[in-house]
Amino acid sequence: MGLAVLVLLAGSCSRREKLSIYNWSYYTPQSVIEQFEKEFNVRVIYDEFASNEEMFAKLMAGGSGYDIVFPSQDYTSIMIQRGMLARLDRSLLPNLQHLDPIMLQKATYDPNMNFSVPYYWGLAGIIVNTARVPDFEKCWSIFARTDLAGRMTMLDDMREVMGGALAHLGFSVNSTNPEEIEAARNHINTHWRPNLSKFDSETFGKGYANGDFWVVHAFPEVVYEEIMDNPQLMRDTLFFIPPGGPAYIDNMVILANSRNIELAHKFINFIHRPEIYAEFADEFGFPATANVAARRYKQGPAWYEIEDLLGRDLTMDLGEALRIYHDAWFNSIRIGN
């Protein structure tokens, strides 16, 4: 009798549906994943990437098997154009009613949410250890400081770094002017890159936490997760948003070859349940940017405010002009990184 029960239980577990997610590092609380698994009796398989370029290259190389992926707005546009995404069934996503209408006005890459649902509307900035660097200007020029050489990193993210340089020089983060893009490349190579330890989107949080780096171009949630148990470093840490520079909307999309499309819809709708979204925001020190209804459930502090996003442009898909960025980034700036 006992053996029969064990066999039945094993069979029941093996029949659980699986949802395969490919998401940014430090981006979905384990508690949220566990709640989804329990409520829907499923198992989530969760892989991480550090940049849009890494994610896209893996998918283009045949890295399939994923159901939900989290590209930023420019790569969402590219993936729509390439036919990589499944069309969404809005009838399965009632929680879209909670999305911020101001954010949706910016989502011109998929204005009707036919293929994507915003996950988070945010921005990167600069984190400084004020005990090590007590005096500094709150602008991109901090990376030109030779006295901090070897103690600074910038994101290994083409559009974030080049967008920062373009904004610093007074140009649009979406410039398609070859002369402006060349000026940004030259500025990075001449003034910033010599002082950087590296371009890094994977280990900068740990490097900042252990004292290797004092200034990091960062998604603040990554650093926050690494230092939250260090009260002194938390007190010494300052996050600021330099003038100009891009914002982003990371999206939840379902791949066209997903084998679990209905379950993927359930996950997207679950994320935008207001109390769940507030839990996500509190875990990472986010404002509840994408979900208006979640704001009344949010309890913890945030690294920045929703108002900080309002005047900032998203980095958009630039079509053929993206080749100029790729040439500047991969054939010049990142050489030897």
Largest sheet, in brief, is: 5 strands, mixed
CATH level 1 name of the largest domain: Alpha Beta
Q: Per CATH, which architecture of the largest domain? A: 3-Layer(aba) Sandwich
Average pLDDT level: 93
**Shape, principal axes of CA atoms:** globular
Q: What does this molecule look like?
A:
- Strands 2-1-3-10-4 form a 5-stranded mixed beta sheet. A 5-stranded mixed beta sheet has the order 7-6-8-5-9.
- Helix 6 (158-168) packs across helix 7 and helix 7 (178-192) packs parallel to helix 13 (322-333).
- It contains 13 helices and 10 strands.
- It starts with a helix and ends with a helix.
- The protein has helices spanning 2-14, 30-40, 52-60, 73-81, 101-106, 158-168, 178-192, 204-209, 220-227, 231-236, 261-271, 274-284, 322-333, and strands spanning 17-24, 42-49, 68-69, 116-123, 125-129, 152-154, 196-199, 215-218, 237-240, 247-254.
- It has 2 domains: 12-122 and 248-304, D-Maltodextrin-Binding Protein, domain 2, CATH 3.40.190.10; 129-245, Periplasmic binding protein-like II (D-Maltodextrin-Binding Protein, domain 2, 3-Layer(aba) Sandwich), CATH 3.40.190.10.
- With 337 residues, it is α/β, with parallel strands linked by helices.
